Please model this.
Amino acid sequence: MPPVITGFDYRRVPVAEGVSLNVAVAGSGSPIVLLHGFPQTHLMWRHVAADLAADHTVICPDLRGYGASDKPAETGPDVYAKRTMAADVVALARALGHERFALAGHDRGALVAFRAGLDHPEAITHLACLDVLPTLDMWEAMHGVTAAVGFHLYLMAQPPGLPERMIAASADAFFGHFLDVWTGDPEAVPADVRAAYLDACRDAVPSIVADYRASAGVDVEHDLVDREAGNRLRMPVTVLQQDWGAALGYDATALWGAWASDLRHATVAHGHFMAEEAPAEVASALRDLLTR
Model:
């Protein structure tokens, strides 16, 4: 059996036609939903979730296409659009009895959270995004040889077929690469959790690629519409990021500030997997956000 978040109740919740999410729930009080990143599952929140559950209802799903959640076939660009995945999250919270909730996401989950904040401002009370730029800004920031750090973005942006075959042929090496090079403290991802991540990714190559492919197509289109319309995040927003701007030549605070009026942006010294490397710091930042 894969590891679980101790003290959390597990269930499957239908969120769309033919799609149910695997979700861990615990605690009581105002609700917060925590969305995982790549190449992970909801387990990445295990420390932060346990901390927050002392005084909040904490909801940790596997995103569609990841972990033990359903993985619908990519029959069109909208199946793994962040707009669709954001709608999953709103439907999940509603099914659990929460019309309004705080939302925090890391990496891919942060892109889903960002889209949820724009599409569902009536539902999202507070928003936190960890170690990403909005999709549109991310592509605009990648240029020249410095973009090599994001080679996987370009690989998985290709039409269906080749990226899936290439990744499936050496899945553990591919996904394990990111667990190795993005981790500041290797001990933060113990062997059993690492094995659970690799097992989950190995079984989800087509849907993970579809998620990334959407971010090179339909997600950009949605962001462009919102940028041109001047749409902004209406709720308090916290962003925690590594100092990617120094390496890639952009001002992260300014980029995020264009999307959020009530913004607190902080640069951290941890690796990409900050919720596992510095859970107390991340939990503190989320608690601070929830007081705003």
Summary: The radius of gyration is 17 Å.
